Amino acid sequence: MQHVKYDLGQVKRGSTVVVTLDKQANVQLMDSSNYSNYTRGRQYRYVGGLMRKSPASIPVPRDGHWYVAIDLGGGSGRVRSGVNVQPPPRGNLPTYREPGTQPLRDVLDVRVPQRPADPDVLDGRTWDVFISHASEDKPAVAIPLAEALQARGVTAWLDKAELRIGESLRRRIDQGLAASRFAVVVLSPSYFAKGWPQYELDGIVSLSIAGKQNLLPIWHEVSYSDVMAESPSLADKLARSTTDTGIEAIADEIAELVLASR
């Protein structure tokens, strides 16, 4: 694919690649082997994605030789761009795990669901999967995921799981997680725009059993730096991103995990 290439050379983990653009474009940070696959039309992995705002910042996940490729996704025209690398900040750095790099079964766990005492909470019954999302993400992510799970024999709570301004994120997820074997949170620009306090987002990470997550963040149209800005501890959790993993594939992994726990 026609693209603008930046050879960054050796870059340390925790550095930040800052990209300036004159229009929206695909910005992909790749190591040497993945950049080679990218130029040859093979399957590859990257950090980044569609950047609508400039400047865009991408954290470097590990030491190595890195490249930045900027393209218009096959569209016509040219993009003016610039790239610079900022060194890692001093002090301890959070651990970064690229979405999709680890099997869910190796990291995630499930709960034994408990029927809610209040019949108005989740219809007073237990569910396999609770999906927390902003209403704006219902057509693109929440509904397709719920339908894909149901087609695999997994019950998914959806209709009343969307969060509105003024509601307590932590309380809602607590309720959904208690009454479900597993929970999914769709993190997106719309989700973060609801104005959830950071302490509520950080509180999600305490919802774990025996050191394993029982909540899967799905990143939709957000990057690691976006999640990091809202909740550093949540950014460290194993996640799946709709940028590089399809809804059907995500449903397959969740179904495998949940059905094995019944």
From TrEMBL:
SUPFAM superfamilies: Atu1913-like (SSF141099), Toll/Interleukin receptor TIR domain (SSF52200). It comes from the Bacteria. GO terms for biological process: signal transduction. InterPro entries: DUF1883, DUF1883-like_sf, TIR_dom, Toll_tir_struct_dom_sf. Pfam families: DUF1883 (PF08980), TIR_2 (PF13676). Residues 125-258 form the TIR domain. Residues 79-100 are annotated as: Disordered. This is DUF1883 domain-containing protein. It comes from Tessaracoccus defluvii.
